[in-house]
UniProtKB/TrEMBL annotation:
InterPro entries: ADH-like_C, ADH-like_N, ER, GroES-like_sf, NAD(P)-bd_dom_sf, Quinone_OxRdtase_PIG3. Coiled coil: none annotated. This is NAD(P)H-quinone oxidoreductase. The keyword NADP applies. The keyword NADP applies. Keywords: NADP, Oxidoreductase. Residues 18-331 form the Enoyl reductase (ER) domain. NCBIfam families: quinone_pig3.
Amino acid sequence: MPVALPSKMIAVGFDSPGGPEVLAPREIAVPAPGPGEVLVKVAFAGVNRPDVVQRQGHYPPPPGASPIPGLEIAGEAVALGDGVDASLLGQTVCALVTGGGYAEYCLAHAAHCLPVPESLPLDQAAALPETLLTVWHNVFERGWATAGETILVHGGTSGIGTMATMLGKLFGLDVIVTCGGPEKCARALEIGAAHAIDYRASDFVAEVQRITRGRGVQLVLDMVAGDYVPRNLKCLAEDGRHVTIAVQGGARAELNMAVIMARRYTLTGSTLRPRPAEFKALLVQEVATNAWPLVISGELRPIMDKRFALAEAAAAHARMEAGEHIGKIVLEV
């Protein structure tokens, strides 16, 4: 039976870019689902680094996307647009969205939703879509990772880093991570990394060469870019792949192309948010087939850091920017 919906809702956004303090609740209209869309009554929304970059003014939403931050949600499907299977109404789902997650209601493409099993708490469900889809696409599709290979992951205790560690281990990869400090390294090992390098205390290039006995790794998942890229390449074995998914250390890198040619490296990267809806639907199908069964069985669960109330989104952003979190931060709506 259709749910009676309010005309207004609370959402957290900002008028001008700035620090976490620019985030504030405001009352806006509840959106109506268009063809192929689902309106989700949000229980939890994930907080991700792109939300922070958007708030800072460096990552505007793609055309047609909500200006409200928030790229992943979990909750109940309460209204359906034309062409959506009626059985979805009332179902508990989590979804990848292009924006609008920091709100009481959010639109999602029906094809971008995943069913939430009863065994999965909703805060954890909201912490999965962005990191799981990003890691699956970049490690296994763009990075061609296969069982028995070794991957180097920077930011080992971040949301992406923890997901890459757990998913990589489940699919037979040896995972080496870098972390800032001995406490984070210890936690990364508990999460499943084979090796954790404290980049503040040692040179990660030398450590990778020591760990791999000079062979290097087959794949690097890079969130830093900048001057890390030439250092990352020194960690790669011949025919190695380097996948960049963020540029936290700067967008420019100086590379020796002769080395890239001689060692047959592949350099690639991607951003998920601006990709077409059709691409994301295919990616969700891939994850539903290959990785979601591990969620249903309980073998794969996100590492959770802290939850904040929706109105405390500014504090959630401040925690992410401080870099002390381990795993995922979520907003409770």
